[in-house]
Amino acid sequence: MTSATQFERQGYLLYKEPLVSAEVITGAVAGMDQIRHGVSDTGRPPCASPWKPGDDTNKLCKIENPQFASKGIRRLLQQPAIGETIARATGAEMVQVWWVQLLYKPSTSSDTPVTTGVGWHLDWTYWQGHWVDGSELMTAWFALSDVEDDCGPMRFVDGSNHWSGLEGGDFFAQELNHEGFTVPPGEQWHETPAILPLGGMSLHHKLTLHGSGPNTSGRPRRSLAIHVRTEKSRPRGNVEGTIVADDLSGYIDDLELCPIIYGERVASAFERD
């Protein structure tokens, strides 16, 4: 079975061999730590985020577009191996990064309870106001630490990218409770944890259900959620045909911040609805 066939069938893929060099990974980890402490080596801050330097360190740290503030993270995003891997899985002619999230999940214990769960959700729930229906979008989740079963890994529901009519879900929910989702007749709820080494990656479809539990490993879980698109996508404009500041597709013309990591720029993919 080819990777493209497997991705289409189950809605995700796991890559358990490091895709980039140790030097690139080290630079991205350093960038993550700098940003969490309010330091930028580019002269530009990240986008407004749910977590800011000085916030509770016992909560999930989620920072939007960290590549704005870190040269090390920019370098990781530009690695051709990531784009080539995504292209093989999707048959894409072009792959572009359009948004990135830094995710730092601290460890919990009976002495230091933390709030780090991620509830079951579909990415498309949060994206559909920014991209035209049918746009080919996915997430490459890059591990910046070893992710074992006790680290609160992402969990994917096999084949859920084919379940029509799924609605709801909440990224910030703390319980992995799937009672609100209806499993279609003939389907089963089967979860697969994304167990990955440092430098490994998972790739999932915009309609694949996923979430994660608490980290009990005694060490932080580090990652970047790299949201990408192919040439089969088109961003929406607002009613005036211009882009608002919080538009998730608002930076795609800046190829330094949102690099094309496979193929070449396709003019039609940059047109707005």
Write the CATH fold name.
Jelly Rolls
Number of helices: 5
Report the CATH architecture.
Sandwich
Structure summary, number of beta strands: 11
Number of domains: 1
CATH class designation: Mainly Beta
Structural class: alpha+beta
Name the CATH superfamily assignment.
q2cbj1_9rhob like domain
Helical residues, percent? 10-25%
Shape: globular
Radius of gyration: 18 Å
The ordered string of helix (H) and strand (E) elements is: HEHEHHEEHEEEEEEE
Extract low-pLDDT stretches. 239-245
Main sheet summary: 7 strands, antiparallel
Beta content comes to 15-25%
Q: In whole angstroms, how far apart are the ends?
A: 36 Å
The average pLDDT score comes to 89
Task: Explain this structure.
There is one protein chain. Helix content is 17%, strand content 21%. The protein is of the alpha+beta class and 273 residues long. The chain has one domain (3-270): q2cbj1_9rhob like domain (Jelly Rolls, Sandwich). The strands form two sheets. Strands 1, 2, 3, 5, 8, 10 and 11 form a seven-stranded antiparallel β-sheet that branches. The chain is globular and about 50 Å long. 41% of the residues are buried.
Nutshell version of this structure?
With 273 residues, this protein is α+β, with helices and mostly antiparallel strands. It has helices at 3-10, 22-36, 71-77, 80-90, 123-127; strands spanning 12-15, 61-64, 95-105, 118-121, 137-143, 154-157, 191-193, 201-205, 210-212, 221-230, 260-262.
